[in-house]
Amino acid sequence: MANGARGNTDVKRQGLIPTLEVDILLENPVGEVVAIEVKPSSTVKAHDFKGLKYLSNLLNDRFLRGIVLYTGDQPVPFGSNLHALPVSALWRTSE
Questions:
Q1: HSE of 76 in the Cβ direction (CA atoms, 13 Å)?
Q2: What is the CATH number of the domain that holds 47?
Q3: How many domains does the chain have?
Q4: What sections of the chain are H helices per DSSP?
Q5: pTM for this one?
């Protein structure tokens, strides 16, 4: 369990179906989900979001956000509630 802004959050690794995978699922007590996929690549493409899009369709309103962490240097939007973020953003401050 991780303590999130909205209370306790379950952290899970989930294989959705044999060909679709999401690396990390964060689920709060009311069932809202943030999904994270980690890619060891400096570029990100639409197919990198395949598992996140599947999960978004499956969960509907419970799906808050899908994030692909990658080794590039720019945040990139990929549709409603889907974003690619540089892994380095995890260590940035808002200063």
A1: 18
A2: 3.40.1350
A3: 1
A4: 50-59
A5: 0.78
